[in-house]
Amino acid sequence: MLEHAKKTFEIEGNAILNLRERLNDNFINAVNIILSCEGKVIVTGIGKSGLISQKIASTFACSGTPAFFIHSAEGIHGDIGMISKKDVVIAVSNSGETDELVKILPIIKRLGLKLIALTGNKESVLAKNADILIDVSVKEEACSMGLIPTASTAVTMAMGDALAITVLESRGFSEEDFAVLHPGGALGKKLLLMVEDLMHVSDEIPLVLETDSIKEVLIEITSKRLGVTGVSDNEGNLTGIITDGDLRRALERKQDILSAEAKEVMSTSPKTIEKTALAAKALQEMEQHSITSLFVFSATATEKIEGIIHLHDILKAGVV
Known about the structure:
45% of the residues lie in helices and 19% in strands.
């Protein structure tokens, strides 16, 4: 059984690697056609090629190139109406003779669309009608009978990936661009969520005056449930911070904290962050300084406390 699996990997791996020797101006021309497309990239196929076409369309779409899949059989029954004259068509068929696909070729030509063919048969109807032919033929399938599409589907998917990635790189598609298209994913949250989206504001901000008693400090820490309180002067400027750890250390020093004021227990120079910073940056700051919260300021008003962000807020939002 393991030998069958290893042989499958070997056949499909070699088939994909052999594509490198076949890359030529046709590939470059296909990329340029896609880059200059003012509409969408339409990918069409049927059967196993249809499944590969869906994946290719999805890869283009998630990497900044508007694209969608049209099932060839549905295309000849009305779905071809989704195609506009500004679009580019990528047709996928190993044989290049699939009846449903062949039937929509005259319509594609009538609309004056550029047609890129991914086929394993350079003498096929599809190949002869294509503006750009990309050869995805294979010497053998992984199936010992040579009947089940395996190496041929792997090669076609790899070529689709190569087209999409080359277009992506040519456009300078960035992580930020990817995040915009994937707002629900971990990367999207990491690159889109800002501190101001997650921070606690107004009455949720734990804050006491320098002259407040430790009793008032304890009430503020416990009621706001963030394990910390900021300390401000009479003008509202943040001058320090008190955590439950600061209170424990004061007790260890045998300090009479019940008669002390907040300013006598607080740690000075608290760590802060701008509200427009990425939440991921806040997480990085917390990890660097081994702390669990940051007070938040505006870049234009650094003396005014805008909010506070806690480690749990960032983790709950999925910014990891």
